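Suppose you are handed only two things: the residues of a chain and a line of SMILES describing LBFN2T5F. What would the bound structure be? This form records exactly that question and the answer produced for it, so the two can be stored side by side and reused later without any lookup.

QUESTION INPUTS
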Amino acid sequence: MSQSRRNQGPMLNFTKMHGLGNDFMVVDAISQPFRLRPEMIRELADRNFGIGFDQLLVVEPPGLPDVDFRYRIFNSDGSEVEQCGNGARCFARFVRDQRLTNKKVIRVQTAKGVIELRVGRAGMVTVDMGVPELNPPAIPFAADRRKDVYTVELGGDTVELSAVSMGNPHGVLLVDDVDTAPVGEFGPRLESHPRFPARANIGFLQIIDRTRVRLRVFERGSGETMACGSGACAAVVAGCLRGLLDSRVDVELKGGRLVIEWQGEGAPVMMEGPTASVFEGQLRLPADQPPKRRKSTRHSDAKSGTNRQNNRHRQPATSRP
Ligand SMILES: N[C@@H](CCC[C@H](N)C(=O)O)C(=O)O
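ANSWER OUTPUT
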């Protein structure tokens, strides 16, 4: 057998989805074996040589009681992260489209806690993104005390930003006009600034009025995206902390609009927005990627068209990437 045939591993089914142009490869790791090393994720994320995506989303069985699924997220640079808001909405649509559940309210375990997804009409999903974390060590952000606005030295420049965690770290800068904001220049420098020891997503926020903003986000591990759901939540929290916004705000991103609601300190942030499923695909993994294949009933269920919800609590046929 030739070397290339020996290196051929099993097929992996995936779905390409997006939330306002923030795009995802979504993999059901309940019904099929799945493991990808960071370099393989980077190859697949490549827009010229791979499938192309901002994040890889992985659906796993829950590890907690009263939770429906575990949700894992990998940036296009291969790093595993705690939260992805646009991804959470697509996650809800995916598990229903794939008949992994028929629930309309889905509880999902992330690396930073449990979030709740509510499926609405016409592909709309509302996500309870949890209570924002403003305490610097928990973000994490280097500061001796909590403030609503911090001054950060950036080479020869000084910038003012708010630091917020939505499960993942965000820095939010106020700008006069997002179209001319220095996203490409300040974004990468702030993403890996020493005051954000876990790196951060950097949002550039333009206030239109108390209920409407424009936003661009330079995402940690993915670069500028068409939209960032957790970034929209962090931006509204930052705007409210500065006294500039009401509790319900329309956030206009490059890829479209999200509605974000925050009633203030101690309250969770609610995010509402659309989802889109683009295509389903199959790729062959290299032979050394996944662990040994375990028995799965996914394919026979798919053929007979039965609901696969009952398989949810089986052991995952997967291991950590
Ligand atoms: N696009 C996402 C955020 C994805 C993760 C982020 N890049 C990070 O590293 O924290 C969203 O919609 O929230």
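WHAT STANDS OUT: The chain has two domains: 3-128+275-311, 136-267. Residues 22, 54-55, 73, 75, 81, 84-87, 168, 201, 219-222, 225, 228-231 surround LBFN2T5F (CB under 6 Å).
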